[in-house]
Specification:
This protein is α+β, with helices and mostly antiparallel strands. The protein has one domain: Glutamine Phosphoribosylpyrophosphate, subunit 1, domain 1. About 45% of the residues lie in helices and about 20% in strands. The protein has 10 helices and 12 strands. The strands form 2 sheets. An 8-stranded mixed β-sheet has the order 4-3-2-6-5-1-11-12. It has a 4-stranded antiparallel β-sheet with strand order 7-8-9-10. Helix 2 runs antiparallel to helix 3, helix 6 packs antiparallel against helix 7 and helix 9 crosses helix 10. The longest helix has about 35 residues. It is globular, with a radius of gyration of 25 Å. It starts with a helix and ends with a strand. Bound molecules: aspartic acid. The site of aspartic acid has 15 residues, from strand 8 and helix 8.
Length: about 350
Amino acid sequence: MKSIAPIFLVFFWLLSCHQSQNQGKIDQGFSSLEKLETKPKSFAIVIHGGAGTILRENMSAEQERQYRDKLEEAIKVGHQILKDGGSSLDAVERTINVLEDSPLFNAGKGAVLTNEGTAELDASIMDGKTLNAGASAGTKTVKNPISLARVIMEKSPHVMMASQGADIYANEQGLSIVDPSYFIVENRVQSLKRLQEAEKKKKTSQKQGFYDSKIKDSKFGTVGCVALDKNGNLAAGTSTGGMMNKRWGRVGDSPIIGAGTYANNSTCGVSCTGWGEFFIRGMVAYDISALMAYKGMTLKEAAKEVIQKKVPEMGGDGGLIAIDKTGEVVMEFNTAGMFRASMNDQGDLYIGMFSE
Ligand code: ASP
């Protein structure tokens, strides 16, 4: 026994050398990971202003210019916040505020009107870092519903508030409150009239196809924004007036977390636009994240799968914008067009409306 003791000693000495070498490797691994985590990541921002029958031939040069200018103004607000080191949540909220304040889009001022001729607004926001989320549905007096969604997320114990209660909460929180007439613009009044007349005709002449195409185009113009900040945090938000001529307190996908909006730092941030009923049933925004997490798809592959296959196969249409954790941007739609813009950390600006 005595004679083999030195062999054991040498064996244990060799073993401890090997372990400390490995320990070195592991430590090295951690420290380079840490370096990666603390290194500022690239930032990016993408917005949409709704998807639908957006065709060049239906738009005057002046209208096109107005949309381009507003998309550019909005995205530059968020881009500046990100460039200055601000949070993706701030970028998303402020960018959407600009679009909500513009009568061009179906969100905030200029929202489509309900069957009674009023505006009922829906919005949601999600923080990809904490998976916190906030949403409001059917508000009538909150000037900027995306800001209410954020306050619900950050200051209340809830995720979602609806109708009068949400309006009351917004007032209590000191958000900007307006008269319900603030949201109503003339061209939305005219569009509602046309749609309601078509509805009456349909009842008498059963022109189902004609009426369906009107319905299809009665909901577009929703706005959304997704941002990735320098700290690697993703956020997404969506704001809308929903569907024209809606009644019975109809709520679409936009304020539903997982349907119209989703963000998760480990995968991506997503904001959708389109025929809300299908986006709810398809859980579209979350589906993108799930396909990446569970199937290992890239953001591009997941967006194609859902928007070009799953949603149309169900009978729906629309699009989405998204950014993954590396800053890769996707703008996918199966409609004729989608108002959209993106900017990267180099300041490169892209604006699109039609399919290219
Ligand atoms: N998705 C919205 C809704 O169904 C409408 C839209 O995006 O245009 O309420």
